[in-house]
Structures are given as C-alpha cells and as structure tokens.
Amino acid sequence: MATLSSKARRAAVASALTIGAITATAAPAFAEPVTVPGVGTFDIPGVPAQTIQIPALPQLPPLPNVQVPAPDQIKTVGQKAVEAAASKIGAPYVWGAAGPDAFDCSGLVQWAFKQAGLNLPRTSYDQAAAGTPVSAKDLQPGDVVSFYGGSHSGIYAGNGEIIHAATSGTPVKRAPLGSMPMDGARRY
C-alpha cells in the first residue's frame, strides 16, 4: 500500500469530515486510529477507533449523443454569405434595394452578410474601406471585392467567380472575377 504525505492525509480526513463520513466530538484527549480505506490510518484525538465508510458518489446520467461537425464542415461567415448571395441569383437589380427580393450591388453584399450574422456597411465605397485588405492572390470565398474605384462590389464565390448585382436590367448573377477591373478586396 502506498503511503500518503501528511498533507494528503490531512486533506483526506478534512474531506471525510466535510462530507459527514466521520464526525469528531469533544472527548477526553486520547488518540485512537481511524482507518480510511485506500487512504490510510490516522490518529484523531477524541475519535474512537473505527473504519470509515465513504459513500459512493451518485452515478451521473449519460451525456447526450452530440454530433460535432468535422473542421472541414464548419462554415465561415464568408462561406455563409456566399450561400446567401447564391440563393438570390436571378433576383432583379434595383438601384438602392437591399433585399430580400431585389438588390443593388452593395445591398446584395450587405444582405448576404446579414444572413450570415454580420453587419456590413451599406455602400460599396464603405464596404471597400472596412474589413481587412486582401490581395487578389489570397482571395477566399466570402471576400468582398470592389470594382471601378470602389463604386461596385460583389462577393468572391471561389473558382475565379463573383456573385453580384450588376446593373439595371441584369439580375443577380455569377460572373468571372476578371470581367471587371478589380479595385481591391476586403475580408470580414
């Protein structure tokens, strides 16, 4: 049987006293050994010789079966924004509209990110100035891409494509990234 340090023994006895497994009463000053199974034997003044039975802890109910998605199944805010924007492909372009049925360019970007849980600025110029700058070679799905000096914005969808509300008479669509002069990109 391994021996415990005096500090560990004191802690075990104090724990046993705390949970009520043993009690100490005032009695004449004599020391009788008290044995705690698996812990050791202790001399406690005023406590008659005994073996302490520590009650078993109650069984806890089993944890529910929780499905945790694999890291590659966890979607970023940007990926969620791409999915939201893609759901609006074919919606009409209306200048000044911010959804849910019609959009201008910055209105689509703002609406898509709001569906993903993030509030972005309303205008394409403000969208081009906020967030963190990203180079064209480092684009990831969900990055906001600015065109024509910041006067137009879209969402990078991956594979060299953006989703954007182009202009009056053209519905929300996918387009090649290189179909317009890119001004910059921002990550939110």
Automatic annotation (TrEMBL):
<keyword id="KW-0645">Protease</keyword>
<dbReference type="InterPro" id="IPR038765">
    <property type="entry name" value="Papain-like_cys_pep_sf"/>
</dbReference>
<dbReference type="Pfam" id="PF00877">
    <property type="entry name" value="NLPC_P60"/>
</dbReference>
<feature type="signal peptide">
    <location>
        <begin position="1"/>
        <end position="26"/>
    </location>
</feature>
<feature type="domain" description="NlpC/P60">
    <location>
        <begin position="75"/>
        <end position="188"/>
    </location>
</feature>
<keyword id="KW-0788">Thiol protease</keyword>
<dbReference type="InterPro" id="IPR000064">
    <property type="entry name" value="NLP_P60_dom"/>
</dbReference>
<keyword id="KW-0732">Signal</keyword>
<dbReference type="InterPro" id="IPR051794">
    <property type="entry name" value="PG_Endopeptidase_C40"/>
</dbReference>
<protein>
    <submittedName>
        <fullName>C40 family peptidase</fullName>
    </submittedName>
</protein>
<comment type="similarity">
    <text>Belongs to the peptidase C40 family.</text>
</comment>
<keyword id="KW-0378">Hydrolase</keyword>
